[in-house]
Amino acid sequence: MNTELQAILGRGWKKPPLIKRPWLRWLLLAGFVAYLVAAFLTIDVNWARVYEGLERGKQFVLAFTSPDFVSRSGDIWDGMVESIIMTVAASVVGIAISIPIALGAARNVAPLPVYLACRGIIAISRALQEIIVAILLVAIFGFGPLAGFLTLSFATIGFLSKLLAEDIESMDRVQAEAIRASGARWSQWINYGVQPQVMPRLIGLSMYRLDINFRESAILGLVGAGGIGATLNTSFDRYEYDTAAAILILIILIVMALEYLSGIIRARVQ
Amino acid sequence: MPVGDRNGAKVWRRRTQTESLSHWALWLTGVAIFAYCWQQISGATTWFFVWDAPRIAEDIWTRATPPKWDYITQLGKPIWDTINIATMGTLIALCLAVPVAFLAARNTTPSALLVRPIALLIIVSTRSINSLIWALLLIAIIGPGVFAGVIAIAIRSIGFCAKLLYEAIEEIDNTQVEAITATGASRWQIMAYGIVPQILPAFAGIAVFRWDINIRESTVLGLVGAGGIGLQLSASLNVLAWPQVSLILLVILAAVVISEWVSAKVRGAII
Description:
The complex is a heterodimer.
Chain A lengths: L2 H6 L13 H21 L4 H17 L9 H32 L7 H16 L2 H12 L3 H25 L3 H9 L4 H35 L7 H10 L3 H29 L1
Helix pairs in contact in A: 4-7, 4-9, 4-10, 5-7, 6-7, 7-9, 8-9, 9-11, 10-11
Chain B lengths: L2 E4 L2 E4 L4 H27 L3 H5 L1 H12 L11 H29 L10 H14 L2 H12 L3 H25 L3 H9 L4 H34 L8 H10 L3 H29 L1
Antiparallel strand pairs in B: 1-2
Helix pairs in contact in B: 4-5, 4-7, 4-9, 4-10, 5-7, 6-7, 7-9, 8-9, 9-11, 10-11
Organism (chain A): Sedimentitalea xiamensis
Protein name (chain A): Phosphonate ABC transporter, permease protein PhnE
Keywords (chain A): Cell membrane, Membrane, Transmembrane, Transmembrane helix, Transport
């Protein structure tokens, strides 16, 4: 019997700690606590204001039980339709652009210069948030859904190309080689060797991105890029909580429906 | 195998007649929908501004470069606030997400009929509304400031963390739980020694992943008045101080890249 076992025999068992070295464990813990204290001290909360706000919070929660779809129904309808139109158009264009970029960003399909260029595009698109892109595009293209549409398309490229490129890189080489061995051109190789392998993933990702685009389109209106966000912002500013609750319920319902739909489609294609 | 007929010779085809017909119908509907959407967008657009866009873009570019570097001395506190919003928001969200996840997972929920739908509803509704909208709402309720940002990030993150966590709980190895049960452990002991050790790596991964996303989101929360560096951004945008805007954008970009790097490192170390 080894000495390690000898030492713990006859004593109660204790869970081994996550971090073995005690000094590191205590240092991390102390640092974390110090950070928390520092953070707490710098966040100045006006508790009187918060307490005042609880009443309005209660009103808002109650508004969810009696949402007002009627009195601003025209605005809500227009905003929702604009959001959906932006979502659909941006998803179509974004997916169409991201497929060639994904092919370029897959190391087993593209040569190195193309690979680097496409990876650069993906990195830029992923690093910039939608809302910041929307602010710049609104400044350049003016208010309206065109700015929102361009923003969402741009954001779609980064997301979809990256994930699709990873899928292309991890595809089965054998099938693609078999097509190439039969004397296929490059376009035929992509069409019959690569595309069937990544199609289920592409459809699944596209549905997921459609879902994300709709959620994002709800906030683009805050900076003037069209969609339901402007209506929502106005209703908050006017303290019309029942209208705001109605819009939020609609957003949640549409997102749930999209998620359900994409679940069905993904289950069918995979 | 679908076979076509070309001058009497049999030729391989990818799809049968009906298949390709339905494909075409599907594509036609898709293109029609897209054309309609595009028509609506272009109808709502002032095309004069769009044709003018290259000039405007160039104008903004010349105004925004070079960034006003000495403005960075005023950005220390906003950056600290931004990091605090993300970190505190993530911590609060994790505390709330753990019970929700346990209630939502099929194998740990106390009642699949009554409690699980409520937990799932919490997950869906907090997840489908963007943190900017939560911030907007909280500012109307509890007033502008960092606190509203923290709560907004926390609420938004609950759904995300709880969803990933409950999926991890549903995928645990049941034999370990059975082994703990066989020793005569109580319900809480099973939880602590059978389930928690199995989901701990997933939990840590989710926490860091969400923290990274929250850093991104908290940089723009200030646009609606919820504190952080976005406040400076919106102030600079409102007075058209483009050199300051470009510096803030650079700082945000750096923060996003660093947080992504940190989260990738930490996740690599854990998993």
